Structure formats: structure tokens, C-alpha cells
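Severity: low
Component: inverse-folding endpoint
Summary: output formatting inconsistent between runs
Steps to reproduce: submit the following C-alpha cells with default settings.
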């Protein structure tokens, strides 16, 4: 996708997310918009979000399907508080993991999705004001490339 088109799509999505939040829309609709934008703008194989919901932790995800089409939103119970996800929540900082298999904090059950082999990822804390409410994660740059600092900045903006 050309850079200008990508930037326009990103800005349009931020306006849409802001409108959804202001209108008090349900979290699922807002999360779906965030995940769709992440897939498109970051050229990721999958994007998922870990969110605290009352006393539980949920994982919402979107991934590419055959022909690079966007799949439907998936929802899972989150497997626990460990891995890269836990580190991002505890530290409150975004991180780039170029090779997940070589990362000592990596926990496959927590840091990827069922049926997805994680090569590289970027993670950013999901914030509302100063509180960390979860984590936004993009996994596997399409075409086998690596995520960049610019990608991490985009993910961080989406997570806030």
C-alpha cells in the first residue's frame, strides 16, 4: 500500500476509533476497528489485543486468511500472566521482538494465537489515561520482513 494512502487510512481510523469511544460504543466494535487498522497499516499476519474485562482477561484477534483477506474477529480466554505480554503490562513500555523463538520472555501459548507460528512481533501497552488496561500485539510482518520502530510507533498510537 502506498505510504500516503496508508497514512490517510490510519488517520481516518483514529477518527473513527475516537468517535466510537466518545459515542460509548461497545468495546467489541472499537476493538474490531483497532485490529483491522493494525492488520492493514502494519502489514501484519495477525493483530491481537489482551484486555482486562472485570475479573477475567480476554484476547481479541484478527488475522489474515487465504489471499491476504481479513478474517473475522476471534475471541479467546487469555492463557495467563506470563511471557512478553506480562512484561509489557508490568513495564508499561512498547517493545519490538525481531525473533520470537530467541526471546527468553516468549511464551507461545500467551504471545501468539492458536495455529499461528510467531516469527517476530511488536507489543504496546493498551492505555486509558495512565492505567495499562491490556496489550496490543502485531505478529509476523507480511513478506517475511521485520517490524520497525515506525511500526512500533503506529502500534503505540493505536493502543492509546
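Observed output (run 2 of 3):
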Amino acid at each position: 500500500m502506498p505510504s500516503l494512502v496508508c497514512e490517510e487510512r490510519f488517520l481516518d481510523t483514529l477518527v473513527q476509533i475516537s468517535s466510537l469511544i466518545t459515542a460509548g460504543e461497545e468495546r467489541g466494535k472499537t476493538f474490531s476497528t483497532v485490529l483491522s487498522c493494525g492488520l492493514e497499516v502494519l502489514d501484519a499476519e495477525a493483530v491481537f489485543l489482551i484486555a482486562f474485562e472485570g475479573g477475567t482477561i480476554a484476547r481479541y484477534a484478527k488475522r489474515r486468511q487465504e489471499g491476504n483477506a481479513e478474517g473475522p474477529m476471534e475471541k479467546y480466554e487469555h492463557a495467563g500472566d506470563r511471557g512478553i505480554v506480562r512484561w509489557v503490562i508490568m513495564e508499561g513500555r512498547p517493545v519490538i521482538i525481531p525473533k520470537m523463538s530467541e526471546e527468553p520472555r516468549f511464551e507461545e501459548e500467551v504471545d501468539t494465537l492458536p495455529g499461528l507460528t510467531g516469527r517476530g512481533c511488536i507489543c504496546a501497552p493498551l492505555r486509558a489515561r495512565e492505567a495499562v488496561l491490556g496489550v496490543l500485539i502485531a505478529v509476523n510482518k507480511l513478506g517475511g520482513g521485520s517490524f520497525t520502530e515506525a511500526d512500533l510507533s503506529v502500534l503505540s498510537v493505536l493502543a492509546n
